[in-house]
Write a structure and sequence with these properties.
- The protein is mainly α and 251 residues long.
- The protein has one domain.
- It is 83% helix and 0% strand.
- The protein contains 9 helices and no strands.
- The longest helix has 42 residues.
- It starts with a helix and ends with a helix.
């Protein structure tokens, strides 16, 4: 109940939407970077961009879009420019997450600064989380018996990654293990979002690609990012509410 009250008082839904927007802004240059990388690899390997996109596991409308976009002759220029754009978007995302944590813990986001170490840890956490999700999916498909172990390993990796990021985000003077409940919530929440994307969102977009096209993909992506933002907001609120309970017990 205290988490729900805190969420209502600080506008958790609006904060989640802001995080979803920042995540979407980060995904735009990331997608262009990957698209340009596909084109550069296709040129180096003397393959068509469409075949490279399909070899990478992209299907349907997504494979067609990547193949047509990566055929640009300015691949190296796009690649280098997008690297800088990703760093800028990552710094803005970290600041948004930091401001949200400051509001959840202290009720105000004033004075929040962007830490280079925090930005680096956030970027590493995102990279590790995506890699862990891909490895867990591969293990589940190749060996059904190892699916549970792969999911457990994914949870452990995501929890550890977000816990390291949380130590750099604004919070009260608490030991690191006081941030563990929120990190566990992020791990479980991202797992649920990934399962939802695999079994619901991806199949719906793939089946309705001809009907909705790129707009359908964008809508599904934005919905998933809002869910991710909601998980991150609630994790900070959970840690702050648990710390309030500990303070109340001490008094």
């Amino acid at each position: 109940m205290s988490v729900a009250e805190r969420d209502s008082s600080i506008g958790g839904g609006l904060l989640a939407g802001a995080l979803a927007y920042r995540l979407f802004v980060l995904l735009l240059p990331t997608a262009l970077l990957l698209v340009s990388a596909v084109g550069l690899y296709a040129d180096a390997a003397h393959k068509s961009t469409r075949s490279v996109a399909k070899d990478a596991g992209l299907r349907g409308l997504i494979a067609s879009e990547v193949a047509s976009s990566s055929s640009s002759s300015a691949g190296w220029i796009i690649f280098l420019v997008m690297l800088a754009a990703i760093l800028y978007a990552l710094a803005k995302l970290y600041r948004a997450v930091a401001v949200m944590h400051a509001i959840a813990w202290h009720g105000s986001g004033r004075g929040v600064r962007t830490s280079p170490k925090g930005v680096a840890l956030l970027g590493l956490a995102l990279f590790v989380g995506i890699g862990a999700a891909d490895l867990a999916g591969w293990a589940r498909r190749s060996n059904g018996a190892g699916g549970a172990a792969a999911l457990a390993a994914y949870l452990a990796v995501v929890v550890a990654a977000w816990l390291s990021v949380s130590t750099q985000l604004p919070h009260r003077e608490v030991p690191w293990h006081a941030l563990l409940p929120g990190a566990c919530l992020v791990g479980v929440g991202l797992l649920v979002v990934n399962v939802f994307n695999v079994y619901v969102t991806a199949r719906t977009v793939e089946n309705q690609a001809n009907t909705y096209g790129a707009l359908g993909i964008a809508a599904a992506l934005l919905f998933s990012l809002v869910l991710v933002g909601r998980v991150v907001v609630v994790s900070a609120e959970l840690n702050a509410s648990l710390d309030d309970r500990r303070d109340a017990r001490r008094q």
